[in-house]
Design brief:
With about 200 residues, the chain is an alpha+beta fold. Among the domains are: about 40 residues, no CATH class; about 90 residues, no CATH class. The longest helix is centred in the last third of the chain and has 20 residues. It is built from eight helices and six strands; from the N terminus they run αααβββαβββαααα. It has a six-stranded antiparallel beta sheet. Helices cover about 50% and strands about 15% of the residues. It starts with a helix and ends with a helix. It is elongated and about 145 Å long.
Length: about 200
């Protein structure tokens, strides 16, 4: 809005109220004198708001379940929900680039309704300002993905050291108790003798 005011002041000071060599007066005086000569008054629009809407950029958007999606956020309105319930699928959406907190939509290009953004800031938000906010948010996200959080990295390091300090368990199966227990050698001698006698027979 501040930029608009500066541009308007510049036009008024440098053109409208500045004397012109060709017409020998200021454009504002020439315009006023012309209307006085005709005995008429300039015709002003009956609906200034609607007159302003005619000069705004527009898009044709489909009505989604969440509302109208524009600039990466959704706009919602009771009238929009009613249109959706009546079977309206697409609407004409007009927006002011200097303040995208609200948009205006219509199904017939005659009656327009307002819809508010899901993220409605307190102060006017221009389109270029919103794009800059999104760009900074993406940069911060990429930085967080590339550079781990120090606290998270420290905890992960502690977890690795704790796992390494744990005693390792044997991976082989334990020996059978029969091999560890004592065996009477006389029993082994009797078994060998019986085996030999069987072989001789």
């Amino acid at each position: 809005m501040q930029v608009e005011k500066l541009i308007t002041l510049f036009i008024l000071q440098q053109h409208v109220h500045r004397s012109n060599r060709r017409i020998q007066t200021t454009p504002m005086n020439a315009w006023t004198a012309n209307w006085h000569e005709q005995g008429l008054l300039p015709r002003l629009p009956q609906e200034p708001d609607r007159f302003r809407l005619d000069f705004l950029p527009f898009k044709i958007l489909g009505i989604q379940r969440e509302g109208l999606e524009l600039f990466g956020m959704f706009y919602r309105s009771e009238h929009l929900q009613k249109m959706k319930n009546c079977g309206v699928r697409k609407v004409t959406v007009k927006y002011d680039p200097t303040d995208i907190r609200t948009v205006h939509f219509s199904a017939d290009d005659r009656i327009y309704y307002g819809a508010r953004a899901e993220h409605y800031p307190r102060y006017p938000l221009a389109h270029h300002e919103w794009k800059e906010l999104i760009r900074r948010r993406k940069e911060r996200l990429n930085q967080n993905l590339q550079t781990p959080d120090p606290a998270t990295a420290h905890n992960f390091k502690k977890q690795i050291l704790a796992e390494a300090a744990k005693p390792r368990r044997a991976t082989q199966k334990p020996f059978d108790r029969s091999f560890c227990a004592g065996v009477d050698i006389r029993n082994l001698h009797r078994r060998a003798s019986a085996f030999n006698r069987g072989g001789e027979q």
